[in-house]
Each structure stands twice: as C-alpha cells, then as structure tokens.
Amino acid sequence: TASFVGWVAYSLSRFERDYFGGVAFAPGPLDQPHNLIVVGSFKLAWELSLGLRLRYASGPLVTPVLGSLFDSSGNYSVPLPGLPWSQRLKDFFQCDLRIDKRFVFDAWTLVVYLDVQNVTNQQNPEALFYNHNYSQSAELTGIPILPTLGLRGEW
Questions:
Q1: Could you tell me if 99 and 111 are in contact, meaning their C-beta atoms sit under 8 angstroms apart?
Q2: Among 9, 17, 29, 86, which residue has the fewest nearby CB atoms (within 10 Å)?
Q3: Chain centroid to CA 21
C-alpha cells in the first residue's frame, strides 16, 4: 500500500550426506529444515518509517560428544564423538526493529536511523563447546540486544 511494504519468505529444505558409501544417508552440517522471514515497514508522518523483521530457523546441528578417554602421558582428554551432526540445538528466533527519519534537501537526502537487533534478547545457540575433559557442555549464543545508530546520505 502507500504506507506499508512487506514480504514473507519460507523455505523448507533438507541437507543429507552420504557418510556410508551409498548404504545410508544422514543429515549434514548445513541441514536447516525450516527458515521463515517476515519483514514489514510502515511510512509514518514527518518522513518517519518504522520497520520490523522476524526470523525463525531450525536450530543448527552438532556432533555430540559421548565421553572421553584420558591420555595420562600427554595429560589431555580425547573426545569420543557420537554420530556426526545427530544433535540439533534449540531453534533460532530473532526480532529486529528499525526507525528511520528522512531529511530531504534540494539535491540530496539525509537519513538518520536507529536499528535494534535482537529486541527480545533471545539467547540463540550457535555452537556447543565442552570443558577440558568433555564432561560438561555449554552453548555459544549469538548477539544480545544490539542497538546501532547511523547516518546515510542519498544523492
């Protein structure tokens, strides 16, 4: 419409790999079955616009560690991995907001914007890390709330 622009995109995909010489296929490291993006932008009065982006995706796959063996001669632990890419971390969700203010001059336009990523402060897991002997694991998460203030000139 005159004051709203938006779109929705969804993909359903599967990434499988031949790990066993044609006998059996299994999910690979890039498997992400669901991916949904919703974007909308509203034009407001006084050359203001407000935008929103929602993103949802299936969680990433990791290879779990089932245990470890301790090498006393080297003083380190060796992980015992499970099936490759057989554990899926929590799903990804992020909501981003943006507000723009346009200043229109004779020959150019100045845009001032505030972009806030991850408004809901989701702790989206991106990887799994283990301690020195592989007895405990922790998730590495993505960005927290990230506000960005910027200027853009248009000619």
A1: no
A2: 9
A3: 32
Burial class (CB within 10 angstroms; exposed 0-12, middle 13-18, buried 19+) of 90: middle
The H or E element that residue 7 is part of is: strand 4-12
- What does DSSP assign to residue 89? P
- The 10s digit of each residue's pLDDT in 66-106 is 999 999 999 999 999 998 888 999 999 999 999 999 999 99
pLDDT in tens, 17-36: 887 777 778 888 889 999 99
Q: Where does 89-154 show beta strands of DSSP type E?
A: 92-104, 109-117, 125-130, 137-141, 146-154
Query: Angle 63-64-69 (CA atoms, 0-180°, nearest 5)?
Result: 115
DSSP for residue 122: -
Residues in the chain: 155
